[in-house]
Amino acid sequence: MPGIVVKPRARILHGHDWVFSSEVLKVFGKPADGDVISLKDGKDHLIGSAIYNSKSQIVARRFSRRKQDLDLDFFKRRITQAAEYRARRRIDPRLCRVVWSESDGLPGLIIDRYGDCFVMQTLTLAMDMRRDSIADAITDLFGEITIIERNEAPVRKAEGLELRTGVLRGNAPSQIEIEIEGVTVEANLLRGQKTGFYLDQKHNYGIVSGFARDRRVLDCFANQGAFSLTCARAGASDVTSVEENFENIAAAKRNAAKNDLKVRWIEQDVFQFLRAAEKAGAQYDLIVLDPPSFTKARSGLHDALRGYRELHTRAFKLLSKDGMLATFSCSHHVSGTALSQTISDALVDARRSARRLRRFEQAPDHPVVPTIPETEYFKGFLLEMMPGR
What we know:
- By secondary structure, this protein is α/β, with parallel strands linked by helices.
- It contains 9 helices and 20 strands.
- It has a 7-stranded mixed sheet, sandwiched between helices. It has a 6-stranded mixed sheet with strand order 2-6-5-4-1-3, with no helix packed on it. Strands 7-8-9-10-11 form a 5-stranded mixed sheet.
C-alpha cells in the first residue's frame, strides 16, 4: 500500500488524525488523490490508514490505527457504531446527526436523519469518490429510505470538489415536517440551512423556552423561528423575531400559522434593528442571539470578535433589570474562552453586570474528540442581568 512518512513532530503523533503538507517527510508508492494510504513514522512503524489528497493542505486524514480499506463492510460497521453510540446517549434516532465526520471515524462524512430521509455530505475527496458505497451502506442498514446529498459547502473547494445538491436514492419530498418541543416546523432538505434544520440547537430550544413564560422575548437571527415559536408556546407575553432572509421569514410565518402561535416577524438586518430599538428605548426580558458563523477562517477572527462585541453590547442595553440573554456561536475559530471574554468586554461597554447561569455545550449527537479540536465548533452561555448594578 502506498503512503507517507510523517515528520517527528507531526500532530498525528500526539493524538490528532490529520497530516498537513508541512508535516510530510516522504511520500512512497505514488498514491493517487482519493486513495487509502499507510501512515508511518520515521522508524517505519505503521501509525494507521488514511485518505489522501495532495491538492489539500490536509494531505492525509487517518480513519483507522491499523491497516484498513474503505469498502462496504467498513462503512456499514462504522455507521452502525455511530448509531449505537447515539442510542446509548438516548438520542432520538429518527431526528439526529447519525455521523459526525472525524468524531465517528469517517473524516469528511456527515449524515443527518429526518425520519425516513437521510441527508449526506461528503466533504473530502475520498468520501466523495465512495458516496455510492456509503449510500449502499445506509440503505442496507436502514431499509427503504431516501438519501439526499447536500454538497454545496464551500469547504469542498479546498478538496478540489464541485458543489452539487440532489437526490441519490428514493423520492425526496419537497418539504417535511418535524416536531421540536411540541412545535411543528417545516424543513426543506434540498434548500434549507445546513442539511435542512439546525439539529445542533435541537436540545437547546426547550432549555431557553423554559425561561420564556410571561417575558418579552427578542429572537435575533431567527432563521425559521424555532426559538421564537417554542418561546411563544411556553407562554411568553410577547415575541419579536428578527431575520433578514425573506425565505426564512416566509417559512417562519408558515410555521407560526401551523401551530397557531403569535409572533411579530421583522425582516431586517439584526444590527440595524438593535440600533433602532436602543434609540426607541425598547426593552426585553429575554434575548436570544443565534447568529451564523462570523468567520470561516482564522484570519477573520479579529473582525468576528469585534462583531460579537458590538452585538452583545447592544443586546445588553436592551435587557430589563433582571433580563436574560441566551447567546450562541457556531464559529469554530471563536473559542469558548474568546467568546466569554468578548461578553465580559460587552458588559463593560454597556455598563451592565450579569451572572452566568450556564454554558451551552455541543449536542451529544455532534460528539467532540478532545485530541481533534476541529470537531468542536458550538458554544454558548445563558446570562441574567444583575439589577441595581
